[in-house]
Amino acid sequence: MPQFTHGEVEIAYLDEGEGEPIVLVHGFASNKEVNWIYPAWISTLTRAGRRVIALDNRGHGASTKLYDPAAYHSSLMAGDVRALLDHLDIARADVMGYSLGSRITAILAVEHPQRVRAAILGGIGIRLVDGPGLSAQAIAAALEAPTRAGVTDPRGYTFRSFAEQTRSDLRALAACIRGSRQTLARDELAGLTVPLLVAAGSNDDIAGSPVELAALVPGAQALVVPGRDHMLAVGDRVFKTGVVEFLARRP
Fold first, then answer.
1. CA distances from 179 to 9, 54, 176 (A)
2. Are 200 and 224 a contacting pair, CB within 8 Å?
3. CA–CA distance, 86 with 163 (Å, rounded to integer)
């Protein structure tokens, strides 16, 4: 598995296919395999003629684990994506995120717009502005509990179970959720000029409305994945079709 070093952090990534590059940024407690390989995103995009690059975010997968919440500020995580583009000598790429990965993608587009040809924000909506639909403290407490059986918060239990399934470093994830919950201001989004697609499930109460978020960005498109919640929308055929069509249309 290829890796590169950005400051004190080693970032693991994959690089498959040929064509115009798209970088995929996974969600919290996930990794490049769970978020992008298993739901067939890599195969879908390579079949569409794209070069697909996906990284393990710091604290996740095969990348370096850190235990200071300050090390997970979303701008630092967006900087990892920019550093990956530098490492691969890619001047600009399309970038797609999911959940936390969408927060990272949006901040990358705001802070380094010259590196982003188009952005796809999956699993996120108006809560990118209004604040996360999760209690960081509740999730962190669930991750730090001695055993999963001792977790009483229902959503915390869900994330603890998912983190154990992905064989994640629970302490690193607790630091991550405490440090990575930054929002964007409405005027920052209004200034975005990159083509933008915002997508989330119709039952995703974690993300909030993708329609409301897209309305804040001139020219942005919204996609509602019917009948899907936060966990199930990521692999939905409607989402995949919408992304492939958006990438084919974009300038």
1. 16, 22, 5
2. yes
3. 30
Per-residue pLDDT tens over the stretch 37-81: 999 999 999 999 999 999 999 999 999 999 999 999 999 999 999
Q: Are the CB atoms for 163 and 100 separated by under 8 Å?
A: no
Tell me the fold of 3-131+183-249: Rossmann fold (3.40.50)
Q: What is the pLDDT of residue 251?
A: 63
- In the chain, domain spans: 3-131+183-249
Tokens read off for 174: 């607790």
The amino acid at residue 23 is: V
Fill in the DSSP letter of residue 18.
Answer: S
Q: How does pLDDT run across 215-244, given as a tens digit for each residue? A: 999 999 999 999 999 999 999 999 999 999
> Helix (H, G, I), strand (E, B), or coil: what is residue 138?
helix
The whole-angstrom separation of Cα 182 and Cα 20 is 30
- Which residue's structure tokens are 């982003």? 116
Strands (DSSP E) found in 46-201 = 50-55, 93-98, 116-122, 196-201
Per the confidence metrics, is the pTM higher than 0.90?
A: yes
